[in-house]
Amino acid sequence: MQRILSWLDERVDLMGARKALLDRKMPGGLTWWHTLGSATLTVFMVQVVTGIVLAVARISGETAPLLFTAFNNQFWSHGLNQPTASLPVMIYVYATGPYADWHRQAWAAGFILLMLVLVANIGARLILSRRSPALRG
Question: Residue ranges of the domains in the chain?
Fold first, then answer.
């Protein structure tokens, strides 16, 4: 690997370009390494938060696969290879059940799921509106 880098440096002057671009001082005593590092870290954190929000939205929105993969299990399992209980399955089982009490519990669980999605949506919008002035309208 060192031979390839030295060969490339002889022809393109990589070290000279690095010194000219990245080691130059910036206002406030910062170098380009600090600037690029903070920009990279900021973008990384935004992507992590976006991934978490999308994962929660996808988990709460994909009820059809959960109905088939949870195998109507209503109990918490202790192993990773066993089906576990999920809120959409509980809503489905209780909504199609014969008892009025189960129907009330299914409506309550559906309301809780709806409120979780609403709170996540409003929270994400508040966080994004404070971070970016362009989103304020």
Answer: 1-49, 62-137
Report pTM: 0.48
Percentage of the residues of the chain whose pLDDT score is greater than 90: 11
- Any idea which of 13-22, 100-109, 115-124 has the lowest mean pLDDT? 13-22
Q: Which helix (H) or strand (E) holds 30?
A: none
Cα 22 from Cα 11, distance rounded (Å) = 20
Give mean pLDDT, residues 42-63: 79
Max Cα–Cα distance, the chain, nearest Å? 81
84 three-state secondary structure:
coil
Residue 76 burial by CB count (10 A; 0-12/13-18/19+): exposed, middle or buried? exposed
Q: Which residue from 4, 6, 31 is spatially nearest to 20, judged by alpha carbons?
A: 31
Count how many Cα atoms sit within 13 Å of the Cα of residue 54 in the half-sphere of its side chain: 6
Would the CA dihedral through 119, 121, 127, 130 be positive or negative? negative
Instruction: Please determine, for residue 111, whether its predicted confidence score (pLDDT) is greater than 90.
Output: yes
Q: Which residue, chain included where needed, has tokens 């088939």?
A: 68
CB-CB contact of 117 with 102 (8 Å): no
